[in-house]
Amino acid sequence: MIYKKKLILLSTLAAALAIVYILSFVLDPQRWHDRAFAWLEPRLHSLADRIELSGPAGDAVLLRRNDIWFLSAWGNEYPVRQQRVQDLFAALSRRDVYTLRSTSLETRESLGLTVGSASRILVRGGIGLPLLDLLIGIGGALGRDVYMARADAREIYSGEDRFTFFTDSGPLFWLDFRLFAGGRTAAMVQQAEVTFAPDTSYILRRSGGAWVLQGDESADLLNPRVEAWLRAVLEAEGEDFSAQSPSVVEGSITLWFGDGTSRTVQIGPIEDEENHRRAAVSGSPLVYVLSQWTVDRLFREPSHFIR
Q1: Mean model confidence pLDDT for the chain
Q2: What are phi and psi of 39, to 5 degrees?
């Protein structure tokens, strides 16, 4: 009986101690203190000139040149979608509520917050000084939360995940594959010349508020169809970049704009079993890889525009 009483007493004490421990963990103000702050102050945006991102899909390095961001990869610099960089800055500069979980360096490994295991956003400015070095670890107890910490600080926070969208996407996520980047619209186009093998060539030009087919001005063109085609050309995107220009030109599209400038797209022959073609754009050193689906949308017979 005495043994059983001691066992019950010890069990009761152990349970009480466990409850006290759990409550101290839950109610510890240092562990669970909520703070509202932004990881990167908006005033630092203009100083940033390099962003290094690391994640499971690979690393990406973004460089700022004359206020334009580029991706530095594969020994070259490529255009990126500028809005995506602005979205990243907006996420980093958003003032949000984060919960302090720990100040222990030993905790970092279990939460995936060590350099090499964590996803990482490193923003540099000036002479390469880090404006922000943010580590992003495993998911928290709540489904949308992750653990986060500055690389140079002890505090570990949890909060809503707004950052793995950028770190987990890899370098291709940032690239701008548009053949006509720079805000050109169909309303700016005054004339278009299309040529493709073996013997198709025609010119569309504006006449007043309508489009005409040069050499056959009596043809009844569908203006909305011409405008839709121009938008398709201006919004066309490649699937990748190539290191070499097309060896042979099998087709070209030249657009003349109201400001007196023009741009020409030249495509080469089919190069693989998936019918990819290379395309060069005047005024750009880049060579794009186009799908056959994209080529078919760009190179239309003149009959496509006639009612």
Answers
A1: 88
A2: -70, -35
